[in-house]
């Protein structure tokens, strides 16, 4: 699977903890992230991650391009719904792209865990997408 990892500033600690907890699963997949998030995850876990620009510099748009070209299987975008800052990635644009391309997306840690565990357990999950 190709998995994108993105997080608003106040959720970066959460995505790092998530990556530590699920390192044994994540290490078997291709990981992509915006710059700061990817660097923080890599520094703590040692996971190989293709890192794009930081969100404010266009990294979210680079992730969006991967979605548009259907190069991703899962997007985990831990967003801060209460205090996100203007410089942070535009979650609405990525959510719209995920919906258009029928791509699973998690915006909170619980959904991220459920999607990662179920998709990892069922490698034929893409057949479900094709039915609807």
From TrEMBL:
- Which parts of the sequence belong to the MGS-like domain? 1-132
Q: Which GO terms describe its molecular function?
A: methylglyoxal synthase activity
Which GO CC terms are listed, alphabetically?
cytosol
InterPro entries for the chain = Methylgl_synth, Methylglyoxal_synth_AS, MGS-like_dom, MGS-like_dom_sf
Task: Identify the EC number(s).
Answer: 4.2.3.3
Catalysed reaction equations from the record: dihydroxyacetone phosphate = methylglyoxal + phosphate
- Residues binding substrate are 8, 12, 34-37, 54-55, 87
At the top level, the lineage of the source is: Bacteria
Q: Which GO terms describe its biological process?
A: methylglyoxal biosynthetic process
A Pfam cross-reference name: MGS
Keyword annotations: Lyase
NCBIfam families hit by this protein: MGSA, PRK05234.1
Q: Which family does it belong to?
A: Belongs to the methylglyoxal synthase family.
Q: What does this protein do?
A: Catalyzes the formation of methylglyoxal from dihydroxyacetone phosphate.
What is this protein called in UniProt? Methylglyoxal synthase
What organism does the record attribute this protein to? Helicovermis profundi
């Amino acid at each position: 699977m190709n998995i994108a990892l993105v997080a608003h500033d106040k959720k970066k600690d959460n995505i790092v903890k998530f990556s530590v907890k699920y390192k044994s699963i994540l290490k078997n997949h291709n990981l992509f992230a915006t710059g700061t998030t990817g660097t923080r995850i890599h520094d703590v876990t040692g996971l190989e991650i293709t890192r794009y620009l930081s969100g404010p510099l266009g990294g979210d748009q680079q992730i969006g391009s991967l979605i548009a070209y259907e190069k991703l299987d899962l997007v985990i975008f831990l967003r801060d719904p209460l205090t996100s800052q203007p410089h942070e990635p535009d979650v609405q644009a990525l959510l719209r792209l995920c919906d258009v391309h029928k791509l699973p997306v998690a915006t909170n840690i619980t959904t991220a865990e459920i999607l990662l565990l179920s998709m990892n357990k069922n490698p034929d999950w893409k057949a479900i997408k094709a039915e609807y």
